[in-house]
Specification:
This protein has eight helices and twelve strands. The protein is an alpha/beta fold. The chain folds into two domains: 136 residues, Rossmann fold; 85 residues, no CATH class.
């Protein structure tokens, strides 16, 4: 789940053109048995990259560690050392990583290395704020175009096409294969997301997501670009007494 730094509509097809011109991608998201690592590799190769540089990063393991434990700090340092080694010795044009990992890289890497990431950046795995994205592109990686999206292994990826007046991100599925709905509560504007997937690979009906969202309609420009069904505004997991927000790498 990601946010864009721009308040104007984003054309994901234009960003795809930028990404497809690159020589090398770097993926700093879940690997090991996690499907995102496989998907990132296939996307990079499809866009003309060489086999992307990757770190070994098992998100299941890091989530089991206490946030302030020695084991947690050592695991994060292990992941960061892998990433730093690649980015300081290789020419990488595109980064695909989670917000916490990019925060750590922004603080560790030299200005020269950060500015060398001049083609594209794709965020995923965890939510980020508009203020965070402003810092990411203004202070740490000023030359990178940002492609943001929302999704998972069942939904796929829905790109962010616009923001609300309050700066909340708005994501839309392309085509007709994905239909978003909500479990409407009485008097509530934010409700639990539900989706139906209808394509050649599978049929999924009434799949309940954890995230709470506002359901929104596409505008004329989005419809003209093939984004035909309702989108989601500001998706994020609910924080309750039983479920507290936790910071991790993925």
């Amino acid at each position: 789940m990601l946010h864009s730094v721009s308040s104007s509509p984003v054309n994901p097809l234009r960003v795809t053109e930028i990404l497809s011109s690159l020589l090398a991608h770097f993926t700093g998201a879940g690997s090991g048995p996690h499907v995102i690592g496989k998907a990132a590799r296939e996307c990079a190769i499809a866009m003309g990259s060489i086999d992307p540089f990757m770190v070994y990063f098992d998100s299941r393991w890091v989530r089991k560690l206490s946030a302030r434990s020695l084991a947690h700090r050592r695991y994060l340092e292990h992941v960061m050392q892998q990433a730093e080694s690649v980015l300081t010795t290789q020419r990488v044009g595109v980064l695909f990583a989670t917000p916490p990992m990019l925060t750590a890289l922004g603080r560790r890497l030299s200005r020269e290395v950060r500015e060398s990431v001049h083609d594209g950046m794709h965020l995923g795995g965890l939510p980020s704020t508009v203020d965070y994205l402003n810092a990411l592109t203004n202070d740490w990686f000023p030359n990178a175009a940002v492609l943001c999206g929302y999704g998972n292994g069942l939904v796929g990826m829905c790109p962010q096409l616009s923001t609300s007046p309050e700066g909340a991100p708005e994501y839309f599925p392309h085509g007709n294969r994905l239909v978003f709905n909500v479990l409407a509560g009485r008097g509530e504007t934010r409700c639990q997301a539900v989706f139906h997937r209808l394509d050649l690979s599978r049929f999924l009906a009434n799949v309940h997501e954890r995230d709470e969202v506002e359901r929104i309609a596409p505008d004329d420009r989005m419809l003209a670009d093939g984004f035909n069904t309702a989108g989601l505004r500001d998706p994020r997991p609910p924080v309750t007494k039983d479920v507290e927000a936790r910071t991790a790498l993925y």
